[in-house]
From TrEMBL:
It holds the Pfam family DLH. GO terms for molecular function: hydrolase activity. This is Dienelactone hydrolase domain-containing protein. InterPro entries: AB_hydrolase_fold (IPR029058), Dienelactn_hydro (IPR002925), Dienelactone_hydrolase-like (IPR051049). SUPFAM superfamilies: alpha/beta-Hydrolases. It comes from the Eukaryota. Residues 58-278 form the Dienelactone hydrolase domain.
Amino acid sequence: MQAVAIAASRAFTQSPRFPASTHFSLVRTLSPSRIQARTMSDSTPFNKIQIQRDDTTFDAYVVGKDTAPGIVVLQEWWGVDFEIKKHAVKISQMDPGFKALIPDLYRGKVGLDVAEAQHLMDGLDWQGAVKDIQASVNWLKANGSNKVGVTGFCMGGALSIASSVLVPEVDAVVAFYGVPSSQLADPIQAKAPVQAHFGELDSFVGFSDVTAAKALEKKLKESGVPYEVHIYPGNGHAFMNRSPEGVQRRKGMGLADEDQAAVELAWSRFSSWMTTYLCA
């Protein structure tokens, strides 16, 4: 497993290519590996709920004031882990306050290394994930939130933008370093305001590099919705992950840049965007 992880890390940082399909791959050279996914443990201050959509039920984790505007917070390829929970808590504590909800798109599984995360993401039903997002938005609106936004990181960033196209109940979107494939959702058809954040040094071609960011900006301009696309000089992929565990994991994957000022600027822009469109 250690050899696979090392090979995966090298592939992640040196050969980021994405196939032209509904799904994307952060690693292309992985050997088949055994999943050793763990179940996410309940963690204060979250309230664990269950949401039903169609013929399936999934867990979600909610934090924040009941009557506050809602924000659906979407995971990276790792799953609902320590980093996405830290993001959700931070969002819930922003002025004037939001109610953050994390839907468990992986149904309780969390990748412990690059190989596992890739395996989990490869198995994701993307159209089903969009349905999970829609059900999450509707749950928030039925439980005290007049308006609801969606945000996400990496895989979740791509799904966030997809929700602006495919989920009419969404009132605003903030996406971090991820663009959906045109087969899933074309941003030119966005219906909700979109703010997007990218690192200048992000090397995931066609998904979150500068070329992808500028292509997204062009499509959002054509869509007619309010939009902002921000590119952060000197920053790479996943630059928002600043917890001690997240920093260690990023360094292990060759993503060693540290720019707290960029993180704070991005959060400030996030707060301003969501306040404008969810609190009016």
